[in-house]
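Hi everyone,

Forwarding the result from last night's run.
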Amino acid sequence: MADHYEVLGVSRDASPEEIKKAYRRLARQLHPDVNPGEEAAERFKLVTHAYDVLSDPEQRARYDIGGDSAFGGAGGFGGFGDIFETFFGAAGGQRGGRPRSRRERGQDALVRVTLDLADVVFGVHRDIEVDTAVICETCQGACCQPGTQPVTCDICHGSGQVQRTVRSLLGNMVTSQPCPSCQGYGTTIPYPCATCQGQGRTRARRTVSIDIPAGVETGLRLQLPGSGEVGPAGGPNGDLYLEVTVSAHDTFSREGDDLLATLEVSMTDAILGTTTTITSLDGPVPLEIRPGVQSGDVLTIKGRGITPLRGTQRGDLRVGVQVVTPTRLDARERALIEQFAAKTKAPPPRLSEFHQGLFAKLRDRLRNG
């Protein structure tokens, strides 16, 4: 079995770069397209196998201590090897192989945005700053310095693959693998773009304009196709996902498409009734409080809730009433109240059936955010 270092013509302490240069030099001389002789073909197999072993740090380490990879060098067992050479020879080894494309789809990106509850009522327009990969302005995705272009790889001659001989129990099998010189692209870039280092894209901050629809809620993700990162070599953009968080509001909370709020009403207004104006999330709204309203009663204002995510019919604004009892009375006020109590002859306090009405739910929801 030939020594891999001798096959490549390098010393045993050669650096990976020296090994690569030696392989490229020999491959140019011995490649079947350049030197079709049988002897050159055998030497090309030996050179390729030697490079496969020595270019891989783990295989090289095993080889240096007396081992080899893939059952040794490129020598054959004979017999079955000749049969497999017939079926999987030079043509069969590259069957169906094509060079890799440098252009690939970009990755998806995720951006989190925080909205106020008011933004959810009708939807909102936002300009969002995104830090992603964008196409290189110098080379426009070509990966080369302006005025230059990729050149056909002189090792694989544009196929993106090289043959290697693998020795197995059944004999020698010739297979194909990505060309180590061009990484399977079929071309090399002698003068990479200095701006993007030959990637065809750079990192930059850009602005994405988006109309966030009404009805979104915390945890919802909106997909913006084609607004993610540009791919290598100017490949198509990935998608951008917008994850929504809705901030808690001091006055209103949400239940489905309805808005909930609590309205404090004085005892006299609760007894006599009144008309007031409350400020909703989209402007002032008149509200009539009927005489005798009780704490826990719910007043509904139609169409002042949230526009649903997939619809046009707005929810309602539901206002839970809390009657406020005065805590400080002067002598005259107290006398009036006593006269009222004596005249109405209200029943004494008593226990009633426990009932957690809608007002209690509203109050708990406001408390818990």
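The chain has ten helices and 15 strands.

Cheers,
N.
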